[in-house]
Write a structure and sequence with these properties.
Number of domains: 2
Radius of gyration: 18 Å
Structural class: alpha/beta
Strand content: 5-15%
Helix content: 40-55%
Order of helices and strands: HEHEHEHHHEHEHEEHEH
Number of helices: 10
Distance between the termini: 36 Å
CATH topology of the largest domain: Rossmann fold
Length: 269
């Protein structure tokens, strides 16, 4: 079964529109360092969702030749604007020797809809089940599983492939706090560890971005695979043929991730 992320996202956007919140005179600001085509495409998709919701959305481009100090100052200046109610620093940041966390921390706490600043992150990791907002990847996993008929992951065997700040680390924290039996696979995991983990999983969440990283043959039919990778970590069509419930790329996690970002905006405003 292929999971229709576009349909799931459309339902959430419909729910947000039904709240009839007005953001007149306010805006969401996205900051793009450099001109990475994939990053720009993703921001433009966020902009289209913002338009659906009646939210003003702007992209501020910054040249990658900037220093870390100057970049932090620029992010602070741009996001302190009282018209800005939500701010995003698009990753990756192609600045030499940059401390990414320091740049993310330049976004004011109350405008950190991506949940990437230290204060917002610490709140989430302290108690993933009661944080005011959650990282969009966590919201995406939660929503996709619910739509797949899995309302509770307690006791489920879950493998998280990759441990990055955007997907693996927060998702692993949330499923563990929810009572799942969690295995995290990393670059140094052996092939035996990978095969054993995948074969024993009820749910697999992956966000590495390496084509055909996940071997379809190692996964049991009926398992759920939520793939954030770009390029995709798994061949969704092959997985579907094998009887695996899987998110395709495109049209899987991406649309839901964007909708969850705007759900955070609505929650904080």
């Amino acid at each position: 079964m292929l999971i229709d992320g576009k349909a799931i996202a459309a339902e959430l956007i419909k729910e947000l529109r039904a709240t009839k919140k007005s953001f007149t005179g306010k805006k969401v600001l996205s900051i793009l360092v450099g001109n990475n085509p994939a990053s720009l495409n993703f921001l433009e998709r966020k902009g289209r969702v913002a338009e659906e919701l009646g939210v003003s959305f702007s992209i501020q481009k910054i040249a990658p030749e900037i220093s870390e100090t100057a970049l932090i100052a620029e992010v602070k200046k741009l996001t302190e604007d009282e018209r800005v109610i939500g701010a995003i620093v698009q990753l990756p940041i192609p600045v030499k020797n940059v401390d990414v966390q320091k740049v993310l921390d330049a976004v004011p706490y109350e405008k950190d809809i991506d949940c990437l600043g230290s204060k917002r992150s610490q709140e989430f990791f302290k108690n993933p089940l009661s944080a005011v907002i959650v990282p969009p990847a966590v919201g995406t996993v939660r929503r996709i599983l619910s739509c797949a008929g899995i309302a509770n992951v307690r006791g489920k065997r879950i493998t998280v492939y990759g441990f990055g700040r955007l997907v693996g680390k927060p998702v692993a924290a949330w499923v563990e706090a929810s009572g799942a039996n969690v295995t995290v696979l990393r670059r140094n995991s052996t092939q035996e560890e990978v095969t054993t983990a995948l074969g024993g999983s009820d749910i697999i969440v992956t966000g590495v971005g390496q084509k055909n990283l996940v071997n379809v043959e190692a996964i049991r039919p009926g398992s759920v695979v939520i793939d954030f990778g770009f390029p995709a970590d798994i061949d969704a069509n092959a997985a579907h043929t094998r009887g695996i419930i899987v998110t395709p790329t495109p049209g899987g996690t991406g649309p839901v991730l964007i909708a969850e970002l705007f759900k955070n905006l609505y929650t904080l405003n």
